[in-house]
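All the exercises in this workshop are built on plain-text protein records. A learned vocabulary of local backbone shapes supplies the integers on the structure line. Once this layout is familiar, the rest of the handout is easier to follow. An example says more than a description, so a record of this kind follows:
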Amino acid sequence: MKDGLFSFNPYMGTCQPLLLDSGHKDLFVRAIFVRNSREVVVGTENGIYIYDCVTRKTRHVNQELGNPYSLSCKAVYSIYCDKEGALWIGTYFGGVNYLPPSSSLIFDKFYPIGHSDRLSGKAVREFVRDESGIIWIGTEDQGLNRFDPVSGKFTHYNSRNSGLSCDNVHGLCVDGDRLYIGTFFGGFNIMDLKTNEIVALGSQMLPDDSVFSIFRDHDGRIWVGLTYGLCLFHPEDGSFELVREIPENLFIYDIYQGDDGIIYFAAYNRGVITYNPHTGKWGQVESGDEGLLKHVVSINEDSAFHIWFGTEG
């Protein structure tokens, strides 16, 4: 599997590789976002690909040296679309890029320039919006950022000025007035969104202290993907329950629930595992004659209910 992007039809059980660019067959896909009923935005190590589901044509947007309005860095790690339809693009070395809803492809950029009200961190990993409209940005090098779209200002939360256990943030999930924060080698943290205070639950409560993904399903269950296994978090008592159906040696890179209720787990070293909460059955996504998908790192769904899988080559 070296085409980078796959489309899965859960009703037909078919999985189709989509070659985005014949010049980049070994495409490392880091993030997928379904922008609208027609466009799928794909973040890769070689910029952004915008796939048109109707024409099946692809537009490639990349960093252009000498162009201050182009993408700031070609290594794209995270994508988020706000309620106005604008794209927020997290990069590994170039901070956050902001693309307005228009198709002009002129980016605004948020750089970590050392000011207290500007972005902190270059390696942007996660975006999530809370119920009040605040955008939370997790970075791998400087912890957590709170961005207020009204004032345009950032507030920083890290292991030095707050209760955050580690500055390497990988998973973010909003659950009412709580923000769950997963860290690499720092375990699981909870922020009270009313007070913005952070409490670290302690990595000793988990079978593995590296949390890579956190997801709230349609029934309110909190799934926690680890570099070694999968857990359910119980907010009522702060406990974790190991999911025995998932082998403890699996790296759960991403979690997503389809419109039909099926939950997909991107197990980096063993393809995509599925769970049907209606029947309690577990399964595996296969890709035709080639068997299991490999190195899946991102999952999303379009308006036609096709599931998209991004892989690392």
Observations:
- The chain has a mean pLDDT of 88.
- The two ends are 7 Å apart (CA to CA).
- Residues 10 and 283 are 12 Å apart (CA to CA).
- DSSP finds no helices and 28 strands in the chain.
